[in-house]
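TA notes, week 10

Several of you asked for a full example with nothing omitted. So below is the full record: structure tokens for the whole chain, then the designed sequence directly under it. When grading your own attempts, check the secondary structure regions first.
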């Protein structure tokens, strides 16, 4: 079965840093793009970042320069390094396999002092 397991969320202060991870299983990880989506309280889903099979990266404009996506194909893992987060980044973060059929359970990131 295809599974995606997100972890690493928590409380972080504005200007701090946090890394969330997504471990995948049940498919050939290296041949799929993986995305991070988020849903803030009372708001809709938005795509935060994407990393393709070849390592090409894409970012939501509001996180460019602050967030970095990476992947370790040997560990079937995608990371989202969040630097200098602000309260607007507070959300439930989901990792999603390309095609949007398979989602992790979400990990909550709260940015607050």
């Amino acid at each position: 079965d295809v599974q995606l397991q997100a972890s690493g969320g928590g409380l972080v202060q504005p200007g701090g840093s946090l890394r969330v991870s997504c471990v995948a299983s049940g498919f050939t990880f290296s041949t799929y793009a993986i995305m991070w989506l988020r849903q803030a309280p009372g708001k809709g889903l938005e795509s935060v970042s994407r990393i393709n099979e070849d390592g090409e990266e894409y970012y939501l404009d509001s996180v460019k320069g602050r967030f970095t996506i990476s992947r370790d194909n040997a560990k079937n893992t995608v990371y989202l390094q969040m630097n200098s987060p602000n309260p607007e980044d507070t959300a439930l973060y989901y990792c999603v396999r390309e095609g949007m059929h398979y989602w992790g359970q979400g990990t909550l990131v709260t940015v607050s002092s």
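The chain has a mean pLDDT of 97. Use that as a sanity check on your answer.
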